[in-house]
Amino acid sequence: MPRVRMLTSVSGVEVNYARGDEVDLDGPAAAAWCEAGMAVMVRDEQAETPERAQGRPETAAKPRTRSKTT
Predict the structure, then answer these.
(1) What is the pLDDT of residue 49?
(2) CA 65, CA 68: separation in Å to the nearest integer?
(3) For 56, how many CA atoms within 13 A lie in the half-sphere containing its CB?
(4) What sign does the CA torsion over 35, 37, 39, 43 have?
(5) What number is the average pLDDT over the span 16-34?
(6) Are 48 and 13 in contact (CB under 8 A)?
(7) pLDDT(15) > 70
(8) Rounded to an integer, what distance in angstroms lies between the CA atom of residue 20 and that of residue 39?
């Protein structure tokens, strides 16, 4: 069963999903709700967050400017 994150609230006789809820739906329902913009597919595993580098961040070199001579 695909897992989706709700973008809108959905309420009915047997369902009550708030915006942001992650729910398991059957394939056709998940596809229809995603196509309608009501939900988005969610990956099963959590994405890794990159670690912050220690020290100063890298910066690009400043472009050299030509001095004006008259």
Answers:
(1) 67
(2) 9
(3) 3
(4) positive
(5) 93
(6) no
(7) yes
(8) 9
Token output for 62: 């400043």
Q: Residue 6 is which amino acid? A: M
- The size of the chain, in residues, is 70
Residue 62 half-sphere exposure toward CB, CA atoms < 13 A: 3
CA atoms of 24 and 2, how far apart (whole Å): 6
**CA separation for the pair 6, 25 (Å, rounded):** 11
Tokens linked to 11: 């309420």
Q: What is the pLDDT of residues 29-68, one digit of tens each?
A: 999 999 999 999 997 766 666 666 666 666 777 777 777 7
Confidence of residue 3 (pLDDT cuts 50, 70, 90): very high
Q: Are 30 and 2 in contact (CB under 8 A)?
A: yes
Residue 33 identity = W
For the record, the structure tokens of 45 come out as 């595993």
